[in-house]
Amino acid sequence: PADIRITTIHSTTLRVDQSLLTGESVSVIKHTDPVPDPRAVNQDKKNILFSGTNIATGKCRGIVVGTGLNTEIGKIRSEMAASEEEKTPLQQKLDEFGEQLSKVISIICVAVWAINIGHFNDPVHGGSWLRGAIYYFKIAVALGLLIKVFFFI
């Protein structure tokens, strides 16, 4: 893929569909005349064939003036890659809700665990305080996950 400066046209007209780059709905007539303004926008560069565009009618020859990231499409790609993605208001609200929900779930887990401290030495757990703590920790986490799943369904 390359941008090409037209040097000669071998047909009566040269029309190019450059809607991919400029959004123009009709094909554009190209010519070999130089563009006087070096800061001209792509629509005004009538002597350039842009990478990714298609010749609708005609034949021409030209000189490659840019390839890869040095083409107009490549410059657009580089600008898009360099820009930071901004969160939408909905994404911001969902992030806030997720943080608040995580805090509530953490409090519930700690509360369930704290309420059951007296049951840690229960013979069902083999009389081991550590096994009881782990057992009730699992229950607290499962409860927290159920609440989280409930809110996101």
From TrEMBL:
Record bears the keyword Cytoplasm: no
Locations listed in the record: Endomembrane system
Primary location group: membrane
GO cellular component, as recorded: endomembrane system
Molecular-function annotations in GO: ATP binding; P-type calcium transporter activity
TM helices/strands, residue ranges: 101-121, 133-152
Source taxon at top rank: Eukaryota
EC number: 7.2.2.10
Mode of membrane association: Multi-pass membrane protein
The entry's keywords: ATP-binding, Magnesium, Membrane, Nucleotide-binding, Phosphoprotein, Translocase, Transmembrane, Transmembrane helix
Entry-linked InterPro entries: ATPase_P-typ_TM_dom_sf (IPR023298), ATPase_P-typ_transduc_dom_A_sf (IPR008250), ATPase_P-type_domA (IPR059000)
Domain P-type ATPase A: 1-80
PANTHER family: CALCIUM-TRANSPORTING ATPASE
Protein name: P-type Ca(2+) transporter
Organism whose genome encodes this protein: Rotaria magnacalcarata
